[in-house]
Structure formats: C-alpha cells, structure tokens
C-alpha cells in the first residue's frame, strides 16, 4: 500500500497513470473507492480521455461520496455541465449523502443552474460554509448579476471574510468591466496575496490596458508562475507578441520555470509572427529543457507550425496527438490546410471530425471564402443551418456575407443579413464592414452607405471598404470627401485608403484631383505609383505615364506595367503597348490577359499577322486564354454562361429572345463593334461571335425570368468588351431596365441608354 502511494505521488502523465492503474489491478484494489477516487483525480490532472475516467468510475460497484466528488470534478474541469447534472442525479438515486464539500464543484459546473444549488445549500444549512459561500460568490460574479455576488459578499462578517472572497469579487468586477469597483476593492482590502495582484494584472489586460497591467505586475511583492502567465497572456491577447516574447526572456532569466500554460501562451504569441526561425528556437528550448509537452502545448505547436508554413510538421503533431487531439487541434489542422489552399484535405478532416463546433464550421467556411470558393462557402453555411450542430456566430456571418459580396449575389446577401438579424447575432464593426463590402460589391451603394452611416463606431476598414466601393463605381468626389471625413474623425488614411481614392479618380478621369491625392502621400508605395500610371494613361497622358515609370524610386511590378498596357489599348498606342507587354511577359509569363490586351491593340490597328504571332507564342509557352463567363442571380441560384453557351436548361428560350432583341436593336440603329474579335474572319462571323458573348446571354436570361422593371445584375470575370458595352446601353433603353454589370475592373450601371462610366473604362 505504501509502495502504491509512492508510485501515485510520482504520476506526471497519462502513461504513468495507466501503469499505476495496472499495479492497482494486480493488487486487486481496483474496486476500492479510495483507489478509484485517486485514479479519477489523476485523470483530471493529466487531462485523460473521458471514456477512461468513466470506466474507472464504473469499476466500483458502490461509489461513495469521494468517488462521486472526483468524477464530478473531472467533468467540471472539462466544462461538461450536462454530464455533471446527470452524475448528481445518479448520486442522489444511489442514496449517497451529499456533504457540503460536494456543492462547490456542483455550483461551479452548473452554469445558471447554480442558482438552484444555492437555494439547496441554504435549505440544508450549508450557506455559512466558507468554501460553499465562496463558490456562490464566484458563480454570481461569473454569470451575473454581479450585484447578487456583492450581496453575498457583504453579508459575510468582516472577521470571516477570506482573501479568496475578495479575490473572487475583484475578478467578477473585471469580468463585468467595472474597473473602478475592482480597483476600489483592491485598495481597501485588508490583505492581498499573489492571486489578488494577478487578478488585477488579468483585469487590466482584459480591458486592453497593457501599460496599467505591466505597472501592477512590476509592483507585485512576489510573483508566481501564474502571475507571469497572466502578463504574458495579456500581451499576447492584445497583439503585443514582441512584448510577450521579451517578457518570456525576463522570466527565464529570473529563474522561473515555465509551465504548460506558459509554453502555450509563448508558442501562440510566436505563431502570430509566422517566423520559422523563432518557431525553431522555441522548439530547441523545449528540447533543451527536456519538456514533455502535453496535448495543449502540442496543439499550440501544431498551430505555430501551420502559421509558419511547415505543414508537414503540423501534420506530424496532429497524428501523434491521436485520441488526445481535441477540437482545437482539429480546427488548427483544418485552418492549416485552408491556409495553403488544400481545401480537399481540409474538407476530409472536417467530414471525419468526431465532434464539430462553431469554430470548425467557421474555419471551413472561411477557408472556402478566402480561397475563391465563395459558392462553396455559402453552401456549407446552408449545411450548417440544416445540421444544427452549432449555432452560427458573427465570425460565421462575416465569412458568408463577404462570400456573397465576392459573388455579387445581392439576393443571397440580403438573405444572409436577414438571417443575422432574425437570429439576433450581435454585429460588431467587423460584421458591419462585411455588409458594406457585400453591398458595394453587389452594386447597391445606397445600402452600403446606409450601413456605414448607421454604425456607432467606425474603423479604418469601414472607411476603406466604402471608399473602394465608390472607386469601383467611379464616384470619385464621394471617395475624396469620405477621406476628408475620415481625417475629421481622427482616423488616419492608410495605404489602402489612398489606393481606393486614386482608383476612384482614375475611373472618373479626375487627373488634377488624383495628382493632389498622390502628392499628399508621405511615402508612396509601388501600388500608389501603379494607380498614378493608370490615371495618367486613362486620360491620354501616355508619355507622362511612361516617364513616371522611369523615375519610380523602386522597381516597377506587374501592376504598373499592366496599367500602361491597358492605357495603350484604350488609346491604341502600339509602341508603348509593346513595351509594357514585353515587361509583363517577363514578370508574369502565365497571365493570358496580357497577351490578349496586346492582341487587342494589334487587332484594332489591323495588324493580323502580329495577332497570329501572339497566338502562336501563347501556344508555344502553354498559356491558355482565360474563359470568359458571366452570371446572374435568380431564385437563390447563380446562373452561369460562357460565350455561345447552350448548356442552360432554358437555352432555346434564351436564343429565341436574343434573335428578337437583335432585330429591335438593328431597327434602333445598332451596329456591332467587331474590333474585339481577335481573328481575321469575315464580318458576318465576327458579328456572330460578339453577338453570343456571355454577358448578352446572361442579360437575355434575366429579361426572360425577372419581373418587369426589376434591376438586372450581372457579374463578369473579364473586362466587358466595346460591343457588349454599346449593346447593353441600347438594351437598357429598349427594355426599360437598369442593368448593373460588374466586370473585373469596375461597375457599369446602364440606364436609359447611358452608362455610369460615361464610356470611360
């Protein structure tokens, strides 16, 4: 017995716990309540799998109050409140007398149900028990109302009030963001311990006052490893990774031995930097100290490797975790795969995950959204709603609403916003920013402005998102005015702000206003130069655009030469077009768009041999032309078309409608612009080619199925051609419709035969 007791005292991991269990079985003690209780207590300390702890509990035929208390603590530690409630009912059914020391565990684990246990202990006369009373204060301090906690606290006679009671109240006030009350209690309490000081450090960190937290930390008369962890976590949670790592160095230098929580915090802080060298140094330190990381530390290492791009190392840890891999590890691995674009592996894990939570769904939905699979993100969200495994939160809705914006699917976007409202999902700045983005990208600027104006608090992303929306619609003055309003609200414009405003000026042809904006930038980045070149090129200042490129203080990137190439196409400047294209072929040899733009320049000048030469070069280098497509939204679905498409279920109706529409257009004076056809063929064949472009088919379908007078919204992946632009202007007038087309460059709002771009794109 003494020998078993010595073995039990040395248990520090799950394998040793199983060895102890084996020895207890060999000594035929595995049915004894004392040893079962001891083993379950070790399960709690070593984070053993629940099925193992439950088997231990079932191994005793007549569990006593100590065994029940141990298993209750185990499930309380795992926050499995439902299991705790079931075990308590079983305990009462077994006729086990409930002593006072059981109730602190029950109260802490029962959530709002703890109020019932509070009434129970008062009825049984345990209300004056110091530990029970402290658990009651803690329950109200955590769950509210905080006033109830204060009432119980105030009812304790001064001589009986423990430091633990003061500490719980201080933590409670920080939980409910009552900084003044927390500070007042701290100042008047008769004695403090290390937990008191640590609670103040944690509290200030929680309200994002890292300076005050560090001040309290530095004043502490003594510090425990928990105190160091509180300050480290404060830095990490407030995005101060460098400060966290510097404090960790101080901790090690002071001779404080890091525990598992320290390692999790420090590893998590280093993850945000994505620095492989820093990750390697932490792993070396773990090895030098011969640390045997538990599942939480290994999960943090998994996440760190994933964020540093070391997917093989992350995968190795994930599979090593095995049964110890909790939902955090699964979610980290799913995010790791989505981060590198391996959506198939991510989805395979998602599908096989034993128990998914809202973070799991969010990780997979965001993975699809961030990797250009917006439609899949929305479909998975619909599955989430149907499965009812987890309740969507704001993070879910930000991904879904943003995905609707990328698709330009206003009908789906409005449905997502209604879902958010009807399910009372709290929307912070991020949620509102997602709505501004969605409405802007769906061509509904009035709704985007409405959301922006209704926001109580805005950040730089709010302004940038709306400015980018104005830019895409060519509303330059609105973008400039919004940047001025931004400064008045003491929000400094950043790189993205200036890109948005310069783009707006470019789309509207406001050269002088654009110059002033560019000159106001203290240290223009390469993207700002690309915007200036685009602005100069669009208004016909091609020589100045070329000179600007020559004088740039940095090496031009593809965006700069792309702006020059497009300007050359717009103004049919062959020489500059060839210069820009030559550079682009070096910088991004696989981008087919550059070859097509140069071909357009040659075709518009009748240089068909050069067009053929470019086509042959594309064949030789394996560059394939991007397939143009357009889609419209109807009935909650996206209907996609390509040139001369006949795959749609209503294809026959669409083409019949197109023929009738063509007749009306010709009678109204329409003549097809065949300059965008990059083949030297007869005019009749050219006209047939441009006549079945994807946007025309999409518009015909929308005219067939939508109500009279309804706005038609089309999304196209490439720049709208000259003929389609002219045709859609006429269609809008003949059919009495507003037609909004979003191409890969900007929005075109066609109404009464006029386009919002003023034929300038």
Descriptive account of the structure:
The protein has 761 residues and is mainly alpha-helical. Helices cover 67% and strands 4% of the residues. It is built from 42 helices and six strands. A six-stranded mixed beta sheet has the order 2-1-3-4-5-6, sandwiched between helices. A hairpin with a 2-residue loop joins strand 1 and strand 2. Helix 24 packs antiparallel against helix 25. It is elongated, with a radius of gyration of 33 Å.
Task: Write a compact overview of the structure shown.
This protein has 42 helices and six strands. It is mainly alpha-helical and 761 residues long.
Write the layout of secondary structure elements.
Elements: H1 2-9, H2 14-26, H3 33-46, H4 50-58, H5 65-77, H6 81-93, H7 103-109, H8 114-124, H9 130-143, H10 146-155, H11 163-175, H12 179-188, H13 194-206, H14 210-219, H15 225-237, H16 241-253, H17 260-271, H18 276-288, H19 295-307, H20 311-321, H21 327-339, H22 343-352, H23 358-370, H24 374-387, H25 394-407, H26 410-422, H27 429-441, H28 445-454, H29 460-472, H30 476-488, H31 495-508, H32 511-519, H33 526-538, H34 542-551, H35 558-570, H36 574-587, H37 592-604, H38 608-621, E1 629-634, E2 637-642, H39 651-667, H40 683-691, H41 694-705, E3 712-716, H42 722-735, E4 739-742, E5 747-751, E6 754-755
Parallel strand pairs: 3-4
Antiparallel strand pairs: 1-2, 1-3, 4-5, 5-6
Helix pairs in contact: 2-3, 3-4, 3-5, 4-5, 5-6, 5-7, 7-8, 7-9, 8-9, 9-10, 9-11, 10-11, 11-12, 11-13, 12-13, 13-14, 13-15, 14-15, 15-16, 15-17, 16-17, 17-19, 19-20, 19-21, 20-21, 21-22, 21-23, 22-23, 23-24, 23-25, 24-25, 25-26, 25-27, 27-28, 27-29, 28-29, 29-30, 29-31, 30-31, 31-32, ...
């Amino acid at each position: 017995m003494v020998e078993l007791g010595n073995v039990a005292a040395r248990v520090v991991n799950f394998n040793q716990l199983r060895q102890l269990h084996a020895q207890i079985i060999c000594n035929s003690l595995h049915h004894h309540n004392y040893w079962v209780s001891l083993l379950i207590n070790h399960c709690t300390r070593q984070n053993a799998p629940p099925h193992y702890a439950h088997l231990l509990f079932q191994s005793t035929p007549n569990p006593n109050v100590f065994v029940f208390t141990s298993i209750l603590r185990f499930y309380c530690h795992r926050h499995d409140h439902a299991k705790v409630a079931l075990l308590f009912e079983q305990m009462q059914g077994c006729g086990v007398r409930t002593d006072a020391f059981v109730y602190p565990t029950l109260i802490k684990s029962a959530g709002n149900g703890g109020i019932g246990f509070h009434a129970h202990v008062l009825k049984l006369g345990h209300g004056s028990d110091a530990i029970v009373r402290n658990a009651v204060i803690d329950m109200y301090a955590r769950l509210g109302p905080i006033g109830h906690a204060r009432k119980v606290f105030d009812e304790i006679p001064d001589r009986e009030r423990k430091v633990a009671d003061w500490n719980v109240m201080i933590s409670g006030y920080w939980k409910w963001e009552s900084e003044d009350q927390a500070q007042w209690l701290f100042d008047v309490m008769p004695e403090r311990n290390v937990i008191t000081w640590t609670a103040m450090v944690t509290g200030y960190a929680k309200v994002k006052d890292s300076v005050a937290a560090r001040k309290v930390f530095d004043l502490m008369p003594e510090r425990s490893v928990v105190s160091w962890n509180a300050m480290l976590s404060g830095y990490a949670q407030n995005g101060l990774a460098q400060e966290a790592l510097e404090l960790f160095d101080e901790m090690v230098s002071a001779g404080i031995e890091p525990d598992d929580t320290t390692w999790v915090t420090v590893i998590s802080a280093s993850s945000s930097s994505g620095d492989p060298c820093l990750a390697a140094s932490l792993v070396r330190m773990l090895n030098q100290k011969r640390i045997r990381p538990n599942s939480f530390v290994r999960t943090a290492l998994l996440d760190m490797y994933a964020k540093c791009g070391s997917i093989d190392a992350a995968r190795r840890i994930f599979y090593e975790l095995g049964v110890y891999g909790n939902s955090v590890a699964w979610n980290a691995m799913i995010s790791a795969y989505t981060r590198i674009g391996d959506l198939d592996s991510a989805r395979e894990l998602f599908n096989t995950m034993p128990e998914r939570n809202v973070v799991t769904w969010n990780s997979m939905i965001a993975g699809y959204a961030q990797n250009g699979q917006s439609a899949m993100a929305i479909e998975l969200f619909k599955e989430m709603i149907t499965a009812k495994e987890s309740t969507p939160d704001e993070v879910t809705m930000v991904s879904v609403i943003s995905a609707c914006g990328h698709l330009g699917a206003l009908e789906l976007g409005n449905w997502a916003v209604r879902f958010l409202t009807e399910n009372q999902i709290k929307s912070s700045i991020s949620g509102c920013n997602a709505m501004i983005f969605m409405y802007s990208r769906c061509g509904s600027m009035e709704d985007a402005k409405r959301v922006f104006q209704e926001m109580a608090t805005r950040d730089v992303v709010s302004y940038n998102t709306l400015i980018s929306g104005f830019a895409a619609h060519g509303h330059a003055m609105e973008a400039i005015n919004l940047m001025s309003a931004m400064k008045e609200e003491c929000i400094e414009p950043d790189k993205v702000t200036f890109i948005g405003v310069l783009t707006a000026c470019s789309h509207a042809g406001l050269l002088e206003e654009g110059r002033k904006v560019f000159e106001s930038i203290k240290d223009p980045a390469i993207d700002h130069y690309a915007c200036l070149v685009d602005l100069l090129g669009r208004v016909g200042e091609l020589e100045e655009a070329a000179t600007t490129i020559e004088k740039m203080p940095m090496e031009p990137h593809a965006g700069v030469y792309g702006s020059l190439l497009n300007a050359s196409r717009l103004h049919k400047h062959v020489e500059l077009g060839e210069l820009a294209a030559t550079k682009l072929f070096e910088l991004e040899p696989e981008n087919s768009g550059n070859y097509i733009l140069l071909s357009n320049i040659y075709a518009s000048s009748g240089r068909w041999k050069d067009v053929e030469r470019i086509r042959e070069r594309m064949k030789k280098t394996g560059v394939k032309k991007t397939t143009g497509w357009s889609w419209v939204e109807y009935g909650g679905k996206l209907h996609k078309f390509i040139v001369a498409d006949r795959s749609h279920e209503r294809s026959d109706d669409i083409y019949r409608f197109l023929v009738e529409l063509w007749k009306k257009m010709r009678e109204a004076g329409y003549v097809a612009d065949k300059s965008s056809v990059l083949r030297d063929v007869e005019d009749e064949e050219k006209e047939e080619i441009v006549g079945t472009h994807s946007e025309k088919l999409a518009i015909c379908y929308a005219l067939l199925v939508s109500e009279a007078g309804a706005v038609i919204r089309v999304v196209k992946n490439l720049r709208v051609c000259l003929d389609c632009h002219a045709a859609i202007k006429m269609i809008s007038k003949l059919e009495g419709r507003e037609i909004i087309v979003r191409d890969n460059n900007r929005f075109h709002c066609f109404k009464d035969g006029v386009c919002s771009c003023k034929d300038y794109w």
